[in-house]
Amino acid sequence: EVQLQASGGGLVQTGGSLRLSCVTSGFVFDDYSIAWFRQAPGKEREGVSIYGNGDSSTYYHPRVRGRFTISSDEAKKTVYLQMNNLTPEDTALYSCAAVLGLDYDFTWENYDYWGQGTLVTVSS
Fold first, then answer.
1. What averages of pLDDT result for each successive group of 10 residues across the chain (124 residues)?
2. CA distance between the termini of the chain
3. Which residue among 1, 10, 82, 87 is least crowded, i.e. fewest CB within 10 A of its CB?
4. 3-state secondary structure of 32
């Protein structure tokens, strides 16, 4: 069974950092793209970052480029999202998702498998 589990969220002050983890199982890791999405109450879900496990490609939403870094540990089948210089606008439920292939974008409807998410709260 395909499973994704996000963790690492918490409460931080503006300017702080968190590292999120997405532990996966049940599929051939290198065949999939793994993406991070986030959604705050009353706002639309938006893509944050994408990692193509097969070719180590990365993509970032402009709002987080330069502050967030996505990476992968193939041995652990885990994708990480290092988040630095956090602001209150980053407050959201962060979820990881997977889809077969390497050339996917932030269209969330394209992603087949989802974790339950981890809450990130950034105080002013």
1. 96 98 93 95 96 89 97 95 98 96 85 96 96
2. 40
3. 1
4. strand
Spatial distance between the Cα atoms of 61 and 74, rounded to a whole number of angstroms: 23
Provide the token pair at 79: 């994708």
**How many Å apart are CA 105 and CA 30, to the nearest integer?**
17
Query: CB–CB of 83/18 below 8 Å?
Result: yes
Reported as a single tens digit per residue, the pLDDT across 74-109 is 999 999 999 999 999 999 999 999 999 877 789 999
Given a contact cutoff of 8 angstroms between Cβ atoms, the answer to whether 40 and 122 are in contact is no
59/70 Cα distance (integer angstroms): 8
Is there a contact between 100 and 112 (Cβ–Cβ < 8 Å)? yes
| Residues facing 32 on adjacent strands | 100
